[in-house]
Amino acid sequence: STNVDPFRPVYHHTPLYGWMNDANGLVYKDGEYHLFYQYNPYGSMWGNMHWGHSVSQDLIHWEPFPIALERDTLGQIFSGSSVVDKDNTAGFGPGAIIAFYTSASDKNGQIQCMAYSTDNARTFTKYEKNPILTPFDGLKDFRDPKVFWYEPQKKWVMIVSADKEMRFYSSTNLKDWTYMSAFGAGYGAQPNQFECPDMVELPVDGDENNKKWALLVNINPGCLFGGSATEYFIGDFDGNKFTCDTKPEVAKWLDWGKDHYATVCFSNTGDRVIAVPWMSNWQYANIVPTSQFRSANALPRELSMFTEGNEIYVAANPVKEVENIRQEAQQLPDFEVKDTYAIDTLLADNQGAYEMCFTLQPNAADISGFKLKNSKGEEVNIYLDQKAGKVVMDRTQSGIVEFGGQSTMHQKETENLAAKNAINYIDNFALATWAPTKKSSNHQFRIFVDKCSVELFVDGGKIAMTNLVFPNEPYNSVEFYNDKGSSTIKDMHIYELKL
Ligand code: FRU
């Protein structure tokens, strides 16, 4: 099977065949994580949207289930969320799983609908009085309902992406919804299409007495490097209205790569906030070089909040469950890097699915980093640039890169890059992504490689960076390097990962 689809990930969720985009309706109940997803069962490009369905007990091993929601006369089934209706507020039965989605058609536009399951998501029944919510102003882009329970006022809240803002509604029975407020006009990276909202409450720096809300806003386009990306806003929610802590022009990014989109979180997971990104970008998602399927999800990530300076940020770390699939381990003694230091063989039987962690001490070096390489001369170059204050992942030489096409630049950052190179366009795929980082005597690196992806987590998830790569052979060696002095690599571990 590896010959058929050499880029099929080993430990990331993918559909068996066909097309997948956004994760939908993420919900946990009775020991099962339900991952629904935007699904075209008839081909490996976007179209004919259904909700596909996979189930896991540990967020890592996924079992394919039958399609949960098929498109119908109201339209395609677009993105949305699910809740567990413990107290039977909707009257479909205590503990019913209720899914909220957008029906999309030329005729009816984008309208919000619901479906319920009383057998733990084995089967769903669409509510006979759908739709439950239509836009009050005839808005064309009005979709991706996120529903959650707001305990202080004992009511349900629904957030719907509405063009370039998010609209908030409330309900006590999940069927009748009242408009409360809107947030987002002029906020963050603008002007871009808002999609797939989520909002979660988290303790700041682990302090249960100091909680804040993070409103996740997926935007397309708007990514610093082109295409789609996930930004978030930190603030307060009083049950009616979200108030942002920062000025409108502040945009915070949940991930600094190019392939992290439509990220939303599981409901009903108690104190854990677990997000699942779709690991692609609308710029080229339909044409990536896989054949039987398109798109995987990035590793599920646990979100937390931390303070830096006067600002609160969201950290994203791979869920701890991924440690259960560590197989062969390679542990290296600490070493010094003078110019270069090569580890020629990453794992005896390298299938291109592994995890690497280490501490990097740049010492006097301005640039210190490492290249994941294969014997075909392809590489992913990840480095710390202390002078520029950046962590960079460069995939320009990573393998198959030509398919992505080019775009004219529209973001400030890429304009700077353009000026430097005297061009006014940028390759959509063949590029480097970067995140700002503070000067520090050491940085923690954790890298997950799985056939066609590299996920980088720096300093306990303060930086997450997710990028697709399509090497013609797995990267099976790593070369550390620096520009001057000697840097130090400590606590280096390499694990094969296998289900
Ligand atoms: C985000 C999105 C959603 C929409 C879905 C359609 O990637 O555009 O806004 O519901 O995909 O497949």
Bound molecules: beta-D-fructofuranose
Helix count, DSSP H or I runs of 4 or more residues: 1
What's the overall geometry? globular
- Kindly state the percentage of residues in helix: under 10%
Q: Note the beta-strand portion.
A: over 45%
Instruction: Tell me the distance between the termini.
Output: 16 Å
Q: Give the overall average pLDDT.
A: 95
Unreliable segments of 5+ consecutive residues: none
How many DSSP-defined strands?
35
The major sheet is characterized as:
11 strands, antiparallel
Class by SSE composition: mainly beta
Rg, nearest Å: 22 Å
Structure description:
By secondary structure, the protein is mostly beta strands. The protein contains 1 helix and 35 strands. The strands form 7 sheets. Strands 23, 24, 25, 26, 27, 28, 31, 32, 33, 34 and 35 form an 11-stranded antiparallel beta sheet that branches. A 5-stranded mixed beta sheet has the order 4-3-2-1-20, with no helix packed on it. A hairpin with a 2-residue loop joins strand 21 and strand 22. The longest helix is centred in the C-terminal third of the chain and has 10 residues. The mean pLDDT is 95. The structure holds beta-D-fructofuranose (FRU).
